[in-house]
Amino acid sequence: MTKKILILTGGGDCPGLNPVIRAITRAAHYSKDDWEVLGSIKAFCGILDEPQKIIKLTNKIVAGLEVKGGTILETTNKGDPFCYPTVKSDGSFIIEDRSDELITKIKKLDVEAVICIGGDGTQAISQKLYEKGLNIIGVPKTIDNDLSATDFTFGFQTAVETATEAVDKLVTTAQSHNRVMIAEVMGRDAGWIALYTAVAAGAEIALIPEIPYDIEKIIQTIKGRIVDGQGFVNIVMAEGAKPKKGKMVTRNCQEKGYHKPLLGGIGFTLMEEIKKRLDVSIRVTVLGHIQRGGTPIAFDRILATQFGIKSFELAERKQFGHMVSLLGANFTSIPIKKAIAKYKCIAPDNYLLNCARKLGICLGN
């Protein structure tokens, strides 16, 4: 008897999603049991849409996906089935709970297991669906590396590589013009990308959400580096960084179904604060979604592949309600409920943070 497995990718895109899809599909093909692999387009939306947007995944379809960024299943961060955006016939917009409808439609597909690939928000949805009786398995995905239940999430190392390459280029132009260069990278509540990039690229200042910065400390560092117009400074800061007694720079999103405020712009805010105090040349580069795109590096391809294989093994064992995890050198699983219980920020005693301090990198405090 053929067993069915359904894969979906939710939340933001990320280098490594396609290798996970490929790994699950190939593992199912070479399994001793007879499996059929399905993919839902745009996460849960493909199941709820009429007609449904669900495709059959085969070895031929997933061939070569290990080198491709993005996701062939597409993704969205506006398809929470518990808060689903719906446009009525009169053009008005409402939010509905369509979770029961979603589960009913999945059961009609006669699916053995759903493998949901996504970050903390997507896995929170997975847990709620599991509690309502859905056979679901989680695969952690986020460039922010902010899930505490796993040492690394795929996509993070590629994002760091992209950001480091960008800052490497900013170093040479900063030196040529005796400038302060500010590189704003992603990171809403966790500064992993910013910290790793700053250490890798040799930045003089690293600003992360976990440590609200003192503008005077930054000014002192710049003064120590630029004397009589000679010298340069490279600053790497997370988009969620904020000054002491200040707030993150955000704006509301007008897109229907998107609930979080948009970040971006703290780099320009910092530039203006520096200009008030120092007569120096400053430029800001916001990397934005460049960090999400492109070909995953080898580390993320391998990690994503192992996560995909592990998630299929969980499906074979009917170990639902679990998320795959990398802990040390071991690929294991942990209950999704436990996986999303604690957010992974950079702890004050983090070793890389300590290394940054000993390298003389100013952390704004």
What does this structure look like?
The protein is of the alpha/beta class and 365 residues long. The protein folds into 2 domains: 3-154 and 296-339, Rossmann fold (3-Layer(aba) Sandwich); 158-292, Phosphofructokinase domain (Rossmann fold, 3-Layer(aba) Sandwich). Helices cover 35% and strands 20% of the residues. The chain has helices at 17-29, 45-48, 59-62, 99-108, 120-131, 156-177, 192-201, 215-225, 266-277, 298-316, 336-339, 351-358; strands at 3-9, 35-40, 54-57, 84-87, 93-96, 113-118, 136-140, 180-185, 205-207, 233-238, 250-251, 262-263, 282-286, 322-327, 330-335. The strands form 4 sheets. The protein has a 7-stranded mixed beta sheet with strand order 3-2-1-6-7-14-15, with helices on both faces. Strands 9-10-8-13 form a 4-stranded parallel beta sheet, sandwiched between helices. The longest helix has 22 residues, at 156-177. The N and C termini lie far apart (62 Å). 48% of the residues are buried. The model has no long low-confidence stretch (mean pLDDT 93).
